[in-house]
Design a protein that fits this description.
The chain is mainly α and 247 residues long. It contains 5 helices and 2 strands. A two-stranded antiparallel sheet has the order 1-2. Strand 1 and strand 2 form a beta hairpin. The longest helix has 130 residues. The N and C termini lie far apart (176 Å). Keywords: Acetylation, CF(0), Hydrogen ion transport, Ion transport, Membrane, Mitochondrion, Mitochondrion inner membrane, Transit peptide, Transport. It comes from Oncorhynchus kisutch (Coho salmon). InterPro entries: ATP_synth_Bsub_B/MI25, ATP_synth_F0_suB. GO terms for molecular function: proton-transporting ATP synthase activity, rotational mechanism. Belongs to the eukaryotic ATPase B chain family.
Length: 247
């Protein structure tokens, strides 16, 4: 009726080792998925130690009473074949198990509540440490971003300093060019003034020399003749002016 121990036929194929080797090479996307978190509380059990998953596994094939029949059959088989022999240690173990079960049922909730309280305190302390670390790390991230922003602005500052240095160098160059221009202009003005002075002195010397020679070349007779001629010219001019005035 129960096909629990049905023999599975083995497959003998020369390609099986090769397929096993290839299965290690091809990984599914689920293998890259993150590992799920462990549950905080254990699963459901029956009679204190038997997991609920065993009953759920046997229900489709054995029904509701299948797990109990299987357990009773295994116990009967072990006792009938004397795999396990009942002796005084069995009764001692039964008494100890009864005491342990009673203690767990009696004091288990209080101990569990105390342990949960301690666990919550530890979790709270760990959470505080985690929050503090997260806060410090977030602040460190903000500081790092601010430093990166300052580093970006530092390039602009360096560019401004380079421009200032270039402007100072250009100003200094222009000042030197202006100074050289003024010095050259002063020297040219000096040369022009010197040439003008030489020309004026030459002209004055020439005028003085000509005047001196002219004065020395005039005789007394020529001087008298010139004076008479000048007087005659003045009289003629005076008559002409009187005639124009009367007209």
């Amino acid at each position: 009726r129960f096909n629990l121990f049905k023999k599975v036929p083995t497959i003998k194929s020369p390609c099986l080792p090769r397929l096993v080797q290839l299965s290690h090479l091809h990984t599914s996307p689920n293998s890259q998925a993150p590992v799920p978190a462990l549950p905080e509380k254990g699963g459901k059990t029956r009679h204190g130690i038997i997991p609920e998953e065993i009953f759920q596994l046997l229900y489709p094939k054995t029904g509701v009473t299948g797990p109990y029949v299987l357990g009773a059959g295994l116990l009967t088989y072990i006792l009938s074949k004397e795999i396990y022999i009942i002796n005084h240690e069995t009764f001692a173990a039964a008494c100890m198990g009864t005491v342990i079960i009673y203690g767990v049922r009696k004091f288990g909730p209080d101990v569990a509540a105390f342990a949960d309280k301690l666990n919550e305190e530890k979790v709270q302390k760990a959470q505080e440490v985690k929050d503090l670390a997260m806060t410090s790390l977030a602040q460190a991230v903000l500081d790092e971003k601010k430093e990166q922003w300052r580093a970006e602005g530092r390039q602009m500052l360096f560019d401004a300093k380079r421009n200032n240095v270039a402007m100072l160098l250009e100003t200094n160059r222009r000042e030197r060019v202006h100074m050289v221009t003024n010095e050259v202009k002063k020297r040219l003005d000096y040369q022009i003034a010197l040439q003008t002075l030489h020309r004026r002195m030459e002209q004055e010397h020439m005028v003085n020399w000509v005047e001196k020679n002219v004065v020395t070349s005039i005789t007394p007779q020529q001087e008298k003749t010139s004076i008479a001629k000048c007087i005659t010219d003045l009289k003629v001019l005076a008559k002409v002016q009187q005639a124009k005035a009367t007209a």
